[in-house]
Amino acid sequence: MTLDESLQLIEDGVRRLKIEYDIFFSGVATRPPYDLRNRVDSLLKRVSEEKKMSLAQRYRYNTLMARYSSYRDLWRRVSQDKELGITTQSRRESTRARVGAGSTRAAEATGPYAGQDVSETAQLSGSAAEVTAISEQSFKIQISDVLEDVSEVQKLFDFLAVTKSRLGDKKILSFESFCSLIKAKTDKLKEDKSCKSVTFNVSVEGDKLRFTAKAGGSS
After folding, report:
1. Rounded Cα distance, 145 and 165, in Å
2. 25 has a pLDDT exceeding 90
3. C-alpha to C-alpha distance for 129 and 158, rounded to whole angstroms
4. What is the pTM of this model?
5. pLDDT at residue 104 above 80?
6. pLDDT for 35
7. Same domain, yes or no, for 90 and 166?
8. Average pLDDT of 4-20?
9. DSSP helix/strand/coil, 204
10. End-to-end alpha-carbon separation of the chain, Å?
């Protein structure tokens, strides 16, 4: 089985798991889909040990892992509520009390997930909303190896995309092209400056966007 086939099986498995957990929490099924979940866990472990992932494959793996992790956390919380006999209404009331007036409103789900916080920021690490919350004016990361630091590159990309959109610039590279650009710049600076890493900085000065890269620690 090729790596791409394994990634597709993981994506299909996560999608199927969500459906089967929806059925279980709705009371139609009598037990959680443990067998399917074990197969997905096994596939994820096998792929995580793969040492020759392309940039696109690593990004796809990280995205699937983030999605699956958010689902697992949600399923755990709903399962605990179910075991404790906490009702849908009490979950809603608990969520409203936790969020409170004047706070950022959490997204409230319906059906088996009623009262649970299932907002995009809660589900996806490195989302645009999360990155925007870090700082509206600047964002800095240090990269040693783009293939190893994909999650950091994702945060930089998200911040850059959000900032460009806020400034009215709709011209945004695809993530894969952005990774290739960052990799080329990182490799060149590491070679030219004999450094171990490269610091990338995005900042806003007035209505202008500045995107810079400089050598990090010397090797």
Report:
1. 28
2. no
3. 9
4. 0.49
5. no
6. 94
7. no
8. 92
9. strand
10. 39
Which of 153, 81, 158, 163 minimizes the C-alpha distance to 115?
81
The token pair at 71 is 């689902």
Same domain, 40 and 76: yes
Question: At which of 119, 150, 178 does a domain end?
Answer: 119
Strand partners, 215: 198
Joined tokens for residue 188 = 């060149």
Alpha-carbon span 139 to 79, nearest angstrom = 38
Q: How many structural domains does the chain have?
A: 2
**Domain shared by 41 and 112, yes or no:** yes
Q: Give the range among 46-50, 64-68, 159-163 with minimum mean pLDDT.
A: 159-163
12 and 115 fall within a common domain: yes
Neighbours of 85 (CB within 10 A): 7
The angle subtended at Cα 211 by Cα 207 and Cα 213, nearest 5°, is 155
Amino acid type, 160: L
Q: What is the pLDDT of residue 125?
A: 35
Residue where one domain finishes, among candidates 87, 119, 151: 119
Q: What six digits make up the tokens of 33?
A: 């889909």
Residue that is written with structure tokens 């994820």 in the block: 44
Average pLDDT on 90-116 reads 47
Same domain? 88 vs 25:
yes
Q: Which pLDDT score, from 0 to 100, does residue 120 have?
A: 34
- Apex 197 CA angle, 219 and 69, nearest 5: 135
74 and 161 inside one domain: no
69 and 113 within one domain: yes
**Largest Cα–Cα distance of the chain, in whole Å?**
63
If asked whether residues 107 and 27 sit together in one domain, one would say yes
The parent domain of residue 107 ranges over 3-119
